[in-house]
Amino acid sequence: MRGSIHSAADMDIVAAFSTYGSCVEREAELREGVQGAVKDLEKTSYAISTTLEKIHNTQGIQNIDAICTECHQELTKVPALYQALQEKVPPGEFYRYHHNFRGTTHRLVAATCLITYLEENRLPMHEEVAKSLGLCTHRDQGFHLDLEDYLQGTLSISHELSRLAINSVTAEPPQSKSHETVPVYVGYGKVEMR
Q1: Is residue 184 part of a domain?
Q2: Hey, is 136 helix, strand or coil?
Q3: Cα–Cα distance between 151 and 102 in angstroms, integer?
Q4: 183 found inside a domain
Q5: Where is it localised (predicted)?
């Protein structure tokens, strides 16, 4: 009788580990799917960033409109890429996988803000950036542009604008760029970052 008890207990342990192994495999497949979708998003993000780098040379300063047009062509791919990523992330688990694409989202927000500034001399709002990326702004609507991601992305454009001001001194007075960063600086001074 004692041998049969151990056999039943052994079978329960084997079944438990078998179930656990299946869960681990499913999780690994899910993680790989998310990472694959993020890689596609990163490729487009880097293409946009590389194109935007052109504004920092003499020919680029003179061809900002053409550079922005080229970036817009790449940006049109982004909503479909976020949709593909959303399909990989289970509903309600946005923040569980957020760390995988947070940096890419920051770069895309920064690029969108910089392009808007270069074209229209203004900083786009959270909702406008989210819409251009194919995202919503509210957590309860599912896949969204987190406010912190928006703020992190906008922070980096002050660096790009100051760099552009230095590189474009011969093309136009740097004060035309610096007066635009002051409201951004003041706005961030009012936001209590924790």
Answers
A1: yes
A2: strand
A3: 12
A4: yes
A5: Cytoplasm; Nucleus
Domain count, the chain: 1
The token pair at 112 is 């969108």
Measured at the alpha carbon of residue 11, what is the angle toward residues 10 and 17, in degrees to the nearest 5?
A: 90
Q: Which residue has the tokens 């993000």?
A: 45
Using alpha carbons, select from 110, 102, 104 the residue that is nearest to residue 158: 110
pLDDT in tens, 18-65: 666 666 677 778 788 899 999 999 999 999 999 999 998 878 888 999
Nearest residue to 164 via CA among 182, 177, 180, 183: 177
Whether the full predicted model's pTM is greater than 0.70, yes or no, is yes
| Cα 153 to Cα 10: distance, rounded to the nearest angstrom | 54
CA-to-CA separations, 95 to 18, 29, 33, 102, 114, in angstroms, rounded:
28, 18, 16, 10, 26
Query: What CATH number does residue 134 fall under?
Result: 1.20.58.190
Residue with tokens 């610096």: 178
Expressed as residue numbers, the domain containing 178 is 37-190
